[in-house]
Amino acid sequence: MNTLAISHSRLRCLKMSVVHLKQIRLFSTTNLNCGELTKTQEENGIRRIILNNPKSRNALCMTMMNELLDHISLDLNNISLRCIVISAEGPVFSSGHNLKELILENKDYKSKEIFSLCSVLMKRIMEVPVPVIAAVQGPAVAAGCQLVAQCDIAVCTENSIFSTPGSHFGIFCSTPGIPLVRTVPRKIAAHMLMTGEPIKAEEALRVGLVSNVVPSDQLESEVMKICNAIKSQSKSVVALGKRFFYEQLELDIHTAYRLGENVMDENVQLIDGQEGIRSFAEKRKPVWKHNFDKLFKA
Amino acid sequence: MNTLAISHSRLRCLKMSVVHLKQIRLFSTTNLNCGELTKTQEENGIRRIILNNPKSRNALCMTMMNELLDHISLDLNNISLRCIVISAEGPVFSSGHNLKELILENKDYKSKEIFSLCSVLMKRIMEVPVPVIAAVQGPAVAAGCQLVAQCDIAVCTENSIFSTPGSHFGIFCSTPGIPLVRTVPRKIAAHMLMTGEPIKAEEALRVGLVSNVVPSDQLESEVMKICNAIKSQSKSVVALGKRFFYEQLELDIHTAYRLGENVMDENVQLIDGQEGIRSFAEKRKPVWKHNFDKLFKA
Amino acid sequence: MNTLAISHSRLRCLKMSVVHLKQIRLFSTTNLNCGELTKTQEENGIRRIILNNPKSRNALCMTMMNELLDHISLDLNNISLRCIVISAEGPVFSSGHNLKELILENKDYKSKEIFSLCSVLMKRIMEVPVPVIAAVQGPAVAAGCQLVAQCDIAVCTENSIFSTPGSHFGIFCSTPGIPLVRTVPRKIAAHMLMTGEPIKAEEALRVGLVSNVVPSDQLESEVMKICNAIKSQSKSVVALGKRFFYEQLELDIHTAYRLGENVMDENVQLIDGQEGIRSFAEKRKPVWKHNFDKLFKA
Question: How many distinct structural domains can be found in chain C?
């Protein structure tokens, strides 16, 4: 184990960003367990963030987005945290931005801040070192659809629908289109954005917006299946993998392979990398350290 | 309302390109209503451009491409124009380029001009400020398949098929592959291009080349459904949205979000943006201006 | 025909790389017909490379990867070679890297070399001038799944499954994720990589990882259908098309169209380009030269 070596590796960046994210908490005023519009609970490695404002159809108002950002950003380097699940109370997953906050003459008009905050929230989902799973139980509309598209993994119930109808209300879903067109085929995204027409759960599965559709009473077990698969892995290995995933997919394939070779080699040198390989050879369960310490050849 | 402010915004570019496109008409000799190989009609906001040379299987010869380009480019800043539908007469949608124009010894050989014009035509579909919909009623082959892949939205009948078999005739479908691989999964595009094998309507739906497949007698009603959804929106909001859609999908996601925040904020400031939000709050139909004028806070 | 002109065209690069690849053979010690872990046979234009180490589940150990690389790289400018098929003996297509070679304390530990060689192998599949087809008859795991994702075309049997479960053994499938996320929708790739859960053949078809799924006893006929479609074309036209396919898909669409115009125009000037067009006009079978010689207007 040689901490100096780590400080020169790209893994350091990962650690830094976790530290950075932790510092953000100092500026947060939201309590983890009793947000105004969200509920959060963390148990057995799973942080559940629940949109809990059914009467406004879980609109992504400033308060809601701030709470989401806080809950997603908290305590990220705590080893016990292994994945984040975003779900919702009520019949609607989320109806998107609160249009009232976008009326110019209203005293709480703050268009620039809203879209800036929304982008920070969406990018944070990619940046956090644990997988973020959307568990969708009903309509996900406009920025609500964006939230689903931006999560690492999404599953939904059979009655869920997805739409980006903003332009019918004068505001084209330009930013929801950003993760949408990176998730579903271009023509499907264009159809959704230009017509505002919704797609049903089965179509969302066909086009890759969700990776599974289940009856409502099986959503929880489907989510648990995903979480358990993630929890049986080393947190640091998953963090390293998620980080490179979002890095490499923006690159040309030759650069991706060039960087990927190093990522793989560094992964192999991790104590958790070696433990994983050995446990497989020895036909036993691995015992993870969940850190970025390396093992060096004697 | 402050026209000076608009002149400094990115919206100006959009207006400029519309003006530019209008000027192109001055150089066109094609009459809007009686092209040699196409029919065009415009009614209730929908411009219909119909490939009308069934005996040559609607080949995209120079004349056909020039007529298409003219009809697509005309009068784009006319508020009444809201979407463009490209369809075809006869059993074939389009068989692609006219191979006779590519025989070196023929007097009308003009390979360079053909592929240059074809690229201009294809890019124009992305550039025009209204959605362009392909309504496919039969085989779309080679550059005919390219035309479908390049449209913003495409729907087809159950008997439609799509193929890029150029290399069987010595000319690999290299340029048809450009919009194709950006529309369908990479391996599907490779299979189509390298084998020349067609895909059927149902497979085109599965891979995202079209967003709906209908029986032949329902193609018109399906197209009308899409057009009506577009027509109920503000032309300027759709134009702004379409433009950013094609801009952002070429960018890394962080740059896309950075630019997207501004696009959303500018959209909100439009008179039509504010009208849309208010009409929603007031539970009434919006009354659109269809322009890029902004509303400023008093 | 003007060889000087060719030497200044982009086609020259293609020839060069073929020459370069041929030279590599000089450094190879593997015999074409009796590799240690693979079998290779070439007949009627089809080179078949068969992973033949069922007792190690066709692990991609150094020896296996070296043999694959050699067999893929050999004799590429031989006109009779028209496509390469990669298949496997035994119940498993490939289980991925040999984990024993990644145990730090083992004498044959060579992590850096393994991932470097693997990248060279994967990129070679894109670089060779003939289509490479994966014919999958069972589980394709980790780097085995990467191999399938990286091939130009892939088909599989109904009992095939695909997974990237590396992180369960401490090594996140970071490099398998490179071709995977370029082949299937982003969320499907993320789900596979972050959970390690497999997808079945039918899902692989839905997400575009394979272009057809057949019963086991029809895999050979499905492969032959693809190979025959490729074999009826000019080798040089396919080579030109494959090369531009992988070039253009990395570019913004405007650059792609700009380069594509030239590629089409050069293709038309090839003797095989003109032969293809003429044979179509004359309703006869084309007679290909399979080279890059051009025909110039008298």
Answer: 2
C7 at the A interface (CB within 8 A)? Answer: no
Interface test with A, best of C125, C195, C202 (most A CBs within 10 A): C195
- Listed as ranges, residues in chain C with pLDDT below 50 are 1-33, 298
Q: Range of C251's domain?
A: 1-20+233-298
- Residues of chain C numbered 19-78 and touching chain B (CB < 8 Å): none
Closest CB from A170, A182, A207 relative to B237: A170
Task: Note the pLDDT tens digit of each residue in A62-94.
Answer: 999 999 999 999 999 999 999 999 999 999 999
DSSP state of C45: T
User: C122 and C151 in contact (C-beta within 8 Å)?
Assistant: no
Task: Assess B282–A contact: CB distance below 8 Å, yes or no.
Answer: no
Same domain as B283, residue B170: no
pLDDT of residue B81: 97
Any idea what the CATH number is for the domain that residue A210 is in? 3.90.226.10
- CA separation for the pair A256, C122 (Å, rounded): 12
CB contact under 8 A, B111 and C268: yes
CB burial of residue B197 (10 Å; 0-12, 13-18, 19+): middle
Whether residue A202 has pLDDT greater than 90 = yes
- Shortest CA distance from B172: residue in chain C: C241
Which residue from B226, B232, B249 is facing A186, i.e. has the nearest CB? B249
Which whole number is the average pLDDT over A272-282?
Answer: 96
Number of CB pairs, chain B paired with chain C, less than 8 A apart: 160
pTM: 0.90
Phi-psi region of B196 (alpha: psi -120 to 50; beta: other; left: phi over 0): left
Nearest to A248 among C177, C187, C190 (CB): C177
CA distance B292 to chain C (A): 27
C158 located within any domain? yes
CATH value at residue A263: 1.10.12.10
Predicted pLDDT of residue B258: 98
The confidence band for B253, taking pLDDT boundaries of 50, 70 and 90, is very high
C126 shares contact with chain B (CB less than 8 Å):
no
Name which of C204, C185, C221 is nearest C213 in CA terms.
Answer: C204
**ipTM of this predicted complex?**
0.89
How do strand C161-163 and strand C199-200 relate by DSSP bridges? Answer: antiparallel
